Amino acid sequence: MANNPAARIDPLDPAGLADLFTDDERAVAAAVRQLCADRIDPYVADWFERGEIDDVRGLAKELGSLGLLGMHLEGYGCAGMSATDYGLACLELEASDSGIRSLVSVQGSLAMFAIWKWGSEEQKQQWLPRMASGDAIGCFGLTEPDAGSDPGSMRTRARKDGDDWVLTGRKMWITNGSIADVAVVWAQTDEAENGRGIRGFVVPTTTPGFSAPAIKHKGSLRASVTAELVLDEVRLPADAVLPDVRGLKGPLSCLNEARYGITWGAMGAARSALQAAQAYATERTQFGKPIGAYQLTQAKLADMHLEYAKGVLLATHLGRRKDAHRLLPEQVSLGKLNNVREALEICRTARTILGANGISYEFPVIRHMNNLESVLTYEGTVEMHTLVVGQAVTGLSAFR
What we know:
Blueprint: H1 23-39, H2 44-50, H3 56-65, H4 83-96, H5 98-118, H6 121-133, E1 138-141, E2 157-161, E3 164-175, E4 182-189, E5 199-204, E6 210-211, E7 226-236, H7 249-283, E8 285-286, E9 289-290, H8 295-323, H9 329-354, H10 365-375, H11 382-394
Parallel strand pairs: 1-4, 2-4
Antiparallel strand pairs: 2-3, 3-7, 4-5, 6-7, 8-9
């Protein structure tokens, strides 16, 4: 029996997940939720439908003013908050839209983290304070038209010409690309013969030869800026290279940061769809009573709450491990694989509860469902994360 006979379950949080977090952590989540309620939620369905965010730079500055850009990094104007705080922020942002969480994630966990972790002191001083405030926007150029899950096969090349570097190639599906002030670009170098391989470069987007045409006609992540990066003999000074990393270790370390945020963010999309379905089930009447009074609908809601609770528990556990400096890349794969997959299933089930209304932008469900189709495969496909986990538990590689 319950210790408190008067206690009642919270229908929006039947597992009592709020108890997992400290007062300070709940305050972080509440602050982000309020920003989203004021600045994003009233407009995001329209942004998604039009495929365009109004005043994206202004939004970036508001996100920066709350300390959300690079919030888990130390120094250089960054908030220096915990991994769990960052995770909760990602959850709240993606409860509004995956595209908004992507803006923050690419800025902080990819572009800023690359410079913060692997850059020179001059690069950090030049870019990180402005990126933390939202006055400068960054993007991360790794994926190419013919190199996604196998980044080692990238064709973008950087060759030495005197003291300069000259970059040539193309990057694809680059979030923030067409609005970025700086791009972190990864390229093959002639050092590959010496085992030094891939290098990262800090590329101001005003550099001659650099262009970033926007990618249109998307059916997913429409409230997100996506571009192709074209590098046509882009000449950079010697100090444009990230000095402290060589090989795939550099970009993969950044992807690990972003995947951690996705593990939390996907649960935000799931929560939004679940709450929409739960509210609809109590309001929609068929055959003389609310559809939530029927067993099949209750079974759907119970299963959705169960998978959501498990996903948040897993994300929280990984967050605590990250804060204790004990989080392994394979564990991030476990979180990303489970939570995105289950969030997508929650959204699909929510759509069935809403029926035809489930495809209307008057409700968030189809928008989240479409977004998660992209989240499912970016930052590592289901297949790749499955094999990472498989290798971790068997000791045998099945990648090739």
